Structure formats: C-alpha cells, structure tokens
Amino acid sequence: MALDLTLAVPLFLVCAAVIAVGGVAMTAVADCLADRTGFGEALVGGILLGISTSFSGTVTSITAAVEGHASLAVSNGIGGIAVQTVFLAVGDILYRRANLEHAAASATALVQLGLLLLLLGLPLMAATMPAVAVAGLHPVSPVLLAVYLAGVRLTRSVQQQPMWFPQRTAELRVDQPEADPFPSLSTAALALRYAGLAAILGLAGWGIAQTGMDIVRATGLSQSFVGAAFTATSTSLPELVITLAAVRRGALQLAVSGIVGGNTFDVLFLVLSDAGYRPGSIYHAVGMPELFLIAWAIVMSAVLMLGLLHREKRGWAAIGWESVTLIAVYLLGLLVQVWAI
To answer: Cross-referenced InterPro entries, in alphabetical order (predicted)?
Structure first.
C-alpha cells in the first residue's frame, strides 16, 4: 500500500535514525573483534564492517529490483559508494592532527581500492555488452562475485604478509590492540551482539526502500535521483557514524577500510539486484544517469587512492587536497543529477 508524504517522510526519517543509532553501537564492537581475533582494523573494517553496514543498502536495492525498479536498485548501490567516499573527507576534517589519508595509509586499503575500481569497471562493460541473461543473470554478475571473493582472499594475504609498507612518520597511526571495552562478554557473545545490530540495520533498510519509493511516486522525482541522493545517503548513515566514531577513537585504519570495504561490497548490490530483477539484465534496464553514477564512483575512488599514495601530511588546515577534491566532485555529481531530473 502506497503512503502519502505525510507518512512516508516521517517513516523514512525514523528508519534513517535507527540506522544511525545502530551504526554507533557497531564501532566499538568491531574494533574489539579486530583486536580479539588478531585480524586487525584494516581487515575487519574492510570485510566484516563493510559487509554488515551495507545490509540496509542491500535490502533496499534487492527490494527495489524485485518490485521492478531497476533504476532505484542500481542508483542506491552506486550512489552509496559516492556518498560513503565523501564521508572520509568529513572524517579528515574531524581529525585535526594530520591529513587522514596520510595517517591511515596501509597496503590493505590500497588493495581494497584497486579491487573496487576493478569491480566498478565490470558493470560498465556489461552495459555495453549484448543484453543476454542466463538463468535470469547477465554473465558479468557471477564474474563480479568471483572477483570480489578473490579480492577478499588477496586482501587477507596482503594483511598477513605485506610486500611493502607506508613510510613511517610521526603522524602515521599503527593498529595496536587497546583495552577491551567488553571484558564481561565472550567473543561468541560479542559476535552475536554484532549480528543482532546487523539484522536491525537490514530491517531498517527495507523500510528505507519502501518509503523511498513512496516519495518517488508522491514527488515525481526520478528513481535515479532519489536513489543517489536520498536512499543511498540514508542507508549509508552507519558508515558515516562509524567513520566519525572510529576517527575519534583513533582507529583510523578501521575508518578508511570500513568505507572502502563497504564500497567494494556495495558493487555486489548489482549482482543481487540482477538476480531479483526478473524482466532481464538489470545492466540494460538502466540508462545514462546510472552509468554516470558508476563513472562518478570510479573518479572519487581514484582520487582517494591517489591521496593514500601521495600522503600529504597536512594540506590546507590539516585537510588533504584529496578531501577537498572529493567534496567538490561529490557536489558536482549531485548538481548533474538535479539537472538531469
């Protein structure tokens, strides 16, 4: 049943608030699990945190795809990558000691960014290939999944045995175990708490999808714009909250890898959306606005990678040039979306 704006907007905001509150609770739990398991902030942030904070966005895209809203499904996932990347610029502003990308540099984060760029290139290839589908899936979809799994294995290998290290400076923050904030909880109980929070985020994501489509119907806005500007931002609130909380805790690698890992997993929204979209290949059910979003995400990811490689120490007011560029590119992308409505 479709809701009018007087109900859809408040429910949308309630779901967004639930996502934000749930995201706060996940930061300390993820940091503690990283120390207890010995996997480290970069790996836990890039895989566990990245996947679990993406649950709400996953549910949003799948729900939209099953209901036949291909544009919303794709723009929600890819638009989330753009907004989550700019969250690191917000974290850079918050972290006053130095440029965040300088202090959080790691081989693992660079591998994850390389994987992200590879994954973003594959949907562009799919959109220019013949519109074929096997068992309801375009051939690129299983390739995306296989590349992601291989990338996770590579990330783990680099984390265990890195072949190069960032130059150590006074500003570089190295991942070190901290005092356990949950001494009364076993690791199993802590994992269960984490799983419960992830389930709550997934339910809130379903609510975001439903109310988001009601807003589309009531306002006449395009699915692409609503997906990129509204649902993607709302379902990305856990990443914003966790990024800022991690920066304040000094867990800088957790902050960066959580964003990059979440972005990498978000590309898999396209695989799930392709499976849920029954009329055919979802890559050929979208148009130029969605392809622009993919290019937008590639440009922002490349800027972030260059910032991690260059490692400017302070920049303007301790904000790196890459953060200024990310904000500018993000705002420009939003303007293009508004112009295209």
So the answer is: K/Na/Ca-exchanger (IPR004481), NaCa_Exmemb (IPR004837), NCX_ion-bd_dom_sf (IPR044880)
Greatest mean pLDDT among 72-76, 124-128, 166-170, 173-177 lies in 124-128
Phi, psi for residue 112 in degrees, rounded to 5: -65, -40
Say what the pLDDT of residue 294 is. Answer: 93
Residue 200 backbone dihedrals phi, psi, to 5 degrees: -65, -40
Q: What is the largest CA-CA distance in the chain?
A: 58
Does pLDDT of 146 surpass 60?
Answer: yes
In sequence order, what are the residues at sequence separation of 6 or more whose Cβ sits closer than 8 angstroms to the Cβ of residue 114?
Answer: 305
pLDDT of the residue at 328: 94
What are the extents of the domains in the chain?
A: 5-173+184-340
The residue among 159, 138, 199, 126 whose CA lies nearest residue 34 is 159
Give me the residues paired with residue 277 across strands.
none
Integer Cα distance of 56 and 251 in angstroms: 24
Tell me the C-alpha distance between 287 and 274, whole Å: 15
Distance CA 64, CA 42 (A): 32
Handedness of CA 90, 95, 99, 105 (dihedral sign): negative
In three state form, how does the secondary structure of 197-245 look?
HHHHHHHHHHHHHHHHHHHHHHHCCCHHHHHHHHHHHHHCHHHHHHHHH
CA distance 258 to 85: 10
**Predicted local distance difference test score (pLDDT) of residue 119:** 95
Dihedral pair phi/psi, residue 324, rounded to 5°: -60, -40
Which CATH superfamily hosts domain 5-173+184-340? NCX, central ion-binding region (1.20.1420.30)
